[in-house]
Amino acid sequence: MQYTFQFGQITRYLPDLLAGALISLEIAFVCFWGALLIGLLGAMALHFGGVWTRRVARAYVACFTNTPGLVQIYFIYFALPEFGILFSSLQAVIIGITLNAGGYLTLILKSGFLSVHRNELDAAEVMGMSRLQLVRYIIVPHIARVLFPPISNKFILMVLGTAVAGVFGVEDLMGRTINANAESFRAIELLSVTACLYVAMTILATLVLAAVSLLCFGRRRSSI
Amino acid sequence: MPHLEITNLDAAYKSQPVLSGVSLSVEKGEVVSLIGPSGSGKSTLLRVLVGLLPPRKGTVVLDGTPVDYSDQRSLRALRDRCAIVFQQFNLFRNMDVLRNVTIAPVKIKKRDRREVEAEAEALLAKVGLGDKLRAYPSELSGGQQQRVAIARALALRPEILLLDEVTSALDPELVQEVLDIIRLLVGEGMTMLVVSHEMGFVREVSSRVALMSAGAIVEIGSPAQIFDAPKTERAKDFVAKILRAH
Amino acid sequence: MWARLADEAPRFFTYYNGIFLLQAMGATLLLSLGGCLAGSFFGLLLVLLRKTKGALFLVPRALAWGFVEFFRRVPPLVVLLLAFFASNLVKMDVSLFLVALVALTFVATAFMAEIIRAGIEGVHPNQWDSAATMNFGYLRTMLTIILPQAWKIILPPAFSFFLLFVKDTAFASQLGTLELTYAGKVLTSRGFTAVLSYGSILVLYFALSYPLARFGAWLEDRLAPSGNH
Q1: What is the CATH number of the domain that holds A153?
Q2: Number of domains within chain B
Q3: Domains contained in chain A, number
């Protein structure tokens, strides 16, 4: 093995990679809120919806959680244009990650809906709350507390999941690593640095989420 | 020579002192009971003796041989001769009754399986569970589980038996069946160190009673002496409280 | 568009393409199962190291912890690419499938180690106490008492992880490992429309994953009520 590690050669890519890491975090952030909204709508559809609403929500969850996000984005990016629906690679990636995570968050939020105690709901109905008020004042605060740990874990997995963007030429951390490699051929050094940046990003996310949890619920709960 | 001699034993749990300067000597065939308010260190003393909590200082001498709790071989030799029965029974939940009793003699002491099984069946018959050999712990009542736990301890052929509040986790109607077994063992002359809240029982079976408070033994003597004529203020307090409770 | 699809369909749904896709699906299944089983094995070894006590095992314990924390926080794609370029250094002829399998095993090992550790910590600590006082050694306690009780806690989350892992194997396509996703890329490069090629890939992943997901839900239901043996 004559390979010598030359980390010196790749230091000049570091600012570039760091900027890419910021883009990865931004993608994760945008997709997360979109997915959370979808998850909330999906869980409400499963919980309160009529037969057909429930069927649609179930089909959505089944389709997006039983196929890889990577292939979903391939389909969005390469197949939809054949129907005249065109997205840029960044748009395709964001839509793909959001829809995919939306499926998982629907399942997570549904389990939160199920954990709302029946008598809490009855009490709320006695107080004359409308369905919307029920969601706003009873269900959302409750599931926020119960579901904070699984949702934060999902967010951290989503940070890692944004690496898929690099496959489509987006200039996120993964994409910039691939570009830098094409230029320098120091793949192992570059990928090691990239790996460490992902570790740093997720640790940062863990710490921020722990702080949020501490502020909102007074206790650290996230596990990853 | 005392069977078990504890001198000046100190222990701490998470830097919180739980035993301070405990000294106690137990003769062969003696039954010594430890009583005292909860949190006074009775159960901790038993846990330290079997090496579940390392002592900070002090000595334990078993049959003339000092025990070194930081040395695995010494610890193993000690556990070979001392068996403990826990408040929560701690039966292995993935094994049936017979296997709970036989696994250590067969696998650890390397004794002949058939001989051990015959002995285990006899022991289980003695504790009144001869018909439950194939039952799992979850299928038994608390009293039955505790009797299995006693049989399991006896199958190790210990010289000293430590009983840690063995009736505290049981429903009141199940307490007697376990106490009856222990009475039987007392009759056979086994050396025992007993932590119990069953004061009538303690008074009946003990050779001596030690009253603990705040991690130390405050008074020790015959049952009559401790219960009828306590000398220290703490002992008087404690006895008065139990009398009021009964 | 619909006309083009109708036109292309007979050329797409051929015996040859069918066999090609089924083989690719087999590779995906093999990567998933192989990675997960190997990951469970190595994950268990890491947990056995991590649950040791005493100064003697301090270094292995720290290494096991570091391995788990690192590989849970790196995207599978990065691990796969690292394994790919590392395998180029070793001038041995290793198949891309093997490279992908090894890389995915690293990922599975880290996640399975966490799942197994949680399961072991779910067994009541008093089981350790009574084993210790009966002179059971560490490994014997683990293997004969703790693990036989922990598997019920471990199985449902392990199966959930397996389901996620099946989808993670799609990233092996970026090395050129022939599995389902790569088969989709091959078909588009042969000139089939992306709708048909990626569409059928999605359908095949679904066919693989959906029954497993239903089985997982059933499994969780079965193991949820606390039977004790």
Answers
A1: 1.10.3720.10
A2: 1
A3: 1
Q: Domain for residue A205, yes or no? A: yes
The conformation of residue C143, written as its DSSP 8-state character, comes to I
Closest chain B CA to residue C227: B138
- For position B125, which CATH number holds? 3.40.50.300
- Chain C residues with CB under 8 Å of A164 CB are 77, 171
Residue C225's pLDDT is: 55
pLDDT at A118 over 70: no
* pLDDT of B106: 95
pLDDT band at A171 (very low <50, low <70, confident <90, very high): very high
CATH tag, C2-223: 1.10.3720.10
Domain extent, residue B221, equals 4-245
Element (H, E) at B192: strand B191-195
Residues on C contacting A at a C-beta cutoff of 8 Å = 1, 4, 69-70, 72-79, 81-82, 85-86, 89-91, 166-171, 173-174, 180-181, 184-185, 188, 193-195, 198-199, 201-202, 205-206, 209-210, 213
Residue A7 is assigned to a structural domain of this protein: no
Structural domain includes residue A1 = no
pLDDT lower than 70: segments of chain B: 246
Predicted pLDDT of residue C228: 41
Residue A131 domain boundaries: 12-217
Residue A74 has pLDDT above 80, yes or no: yes
* Candidates B51, B94, B137; nearest CB to C148: B94
Averaged pLDDT for residues C39-45 = 97
- With an 8 Å Cβ cutoff, the interface of chain A facing chain C consists of 1, 3, 62-63, 65-72, 74-75, 78-79, 81-84, 156, 160-161, 163-164, 166-167, 174, 177, 187-188, 191-192, 194-195, 198-199, 202-203, 224
- Give C1 to chain A, closest Cα distance, Å: 6
Average pLDDT, chain C: 92
A117 band by pLDDT with thresholds 50, 70 and 90: low
Residue A177 forms part of a structural domain: yes
Q: Searching chain A, which residue's CA lies closest to the CA of residue C183?
A: A71
pLDDT of residue B246: 63
Q: pLDDT digit string (tens) for C46-75?
A: 999 999 888 888 999 999 999 999 999 999
Number of inter-chain CB pairs under 8 A, A vs C? 117
